[in-house]
Amino acid sequence: MQHKKPSGPTPKQNKMIQEAVALHQSGHLDAAETQYKKLLKYLPSNIDLLNNLGMIAFQKGLLEDGVRIIERSLQINPNQPYSLNNYGNALKDLKRLDKALVIYDHAIALKPDYAVAYSNRGLVLHDLDRLDDALQSYDLAITIKPDYAVAFFNRGIVLQELNQLDEALESFDCAIAHNPNYAVALFNRGIALQDLKRQDEALVSYDRAIDINSDYADAHYNRGLALQDLKRQDEALVSYDRAIAIKPDYAVAYSNRGNALQDLKRLDEALASFDCAIAHNPNYAVAL
Fold first, then answer.
1. In this structure, are residues 240 and 269 in contact, taking their beta carbons and an 8 Å threshold?
2. CA distance 243 to 252
3. Contact status, residue 202 vs residue 237, Cβ threshold 8 Å
4. Most exposed of 4, 217, 275, 281 (fewest Cβ within 10 Å)?
5. How far apart are CA 62 and CA 59, in angstroms?
6. Nearest to 258 by CA among 245, 244, 246, 247
7. Angstrom distance (rounded) from CA 241 to CA 104
8. Terminal Cα-to-Cα distance of the chain (whole angstroms)
9. Longest CA pairwise span in the chain (Å)
10. Residue 233 gets which letter from DSSP?
11. What is the DSSP letter of 247?
């Protein structure tokens, strides 16, 4: 009688898989990729190897390659929620939004409590300008995972666009409550507070974002705007200068720096700042 060979990895191959995964997790992408490809010659239908290889392609920014690899995995088994979510993410980045939406829906149908897929689905709906549907998707993600800081943050972004500023602020506050070091949530919280004319509170939010990330150019810039609104022009200049030091081609920061200098009657310096804004953006009508 002829015995069938085992279809799974051998002990030696399992050890190689573990080594490849360790390389992958430690950021040695090229070495991990080489190991995965070597293993796939002997285990061409191993879904985990294919998915990990696809993830490396995504991490390297090779989205089309990653899509092809994940599609191979899904041809073997189309009912993989996590692979479908990764597939949807790549399609979203490739701006294939309608297809990405179908893929996320498939993942959710297979795993109805898949909070991450609901959140990613919300991003696609946002990009499709279906803002109410995006909110619903984020709400479902949060219902499943009440401490989901990213979903609260993305929900706040949509509410900002809908000009529901108090609700947006509440959503950002929830994101920060669950992740106190969420610098971009603190930054967007500051924007909502500025739009609500609560400039002093906005400053506190920007300062917290800067404490977390001292090189956050946009937070320094928006801090300058809030200080200008409060007629604290000298302090605003310091913030604009810091933003420009981090991001030397920051045309809008040069322009508003010029405004602050103009308010201080330092007109030659203001003119020089406007000139810098125009040098970095020759079509900057406001600076002109």
1. no
2. 10
3. no
4. 4
5. 7
6. 244
7. 44
8. 88
9. 98
10. H
11. S
Identify the CA nearest to 115 among candidates 70, 89, 151: 151
Nearest-angstrom CA–CA distance, 32 and 218: 36
DSSP 8-state class, residue 15: H
Burial tier of 199 (Cβ tally within 10 Å: 0-12, 13-18, 19+): middle
Supply 29's token pair: 């992408």
Specify the residue for token string 């950021």.
27
Instruction: Name the residue with tokens 């995006």.
Output: 134
pLDDT exceeding 70 applies to what percent of the chain? 98
* Token pair belonging to 153: 């943050």
What pLDDT shows up at residue 209?
Answer: 98
Q: What is the dihedral of CA 166, 170, 173, 177, to 10 degrees?
A: 170
Residue 216's closest CA among 236, 190, 187?
187
- pLDDT > 70? residue 36: yes
The overall pTM is greater than 0.70: yes
Q: Which residues of 249-275 are buried (b: 16+ CB within 10 A; e: fewer)?
A: ebbbbbbbbbbbbbeeebeebbeebbe
Q: Which residue type is seen at 230?
A: L
Cα 188–chain centre separation: 13
- For the stretch 141-177, what's the b/e string if a residue is b when 16 or more beta carbons lie within 10 angstroms of its beta carbon? bbebbeebbbbbbbbbbbbbeeebbebbbebbebbbe
**10 in helix, strand or coil?**
coil
How far apart are alpha carbons 257 and 244 in whole angstroms?
Answer: 10
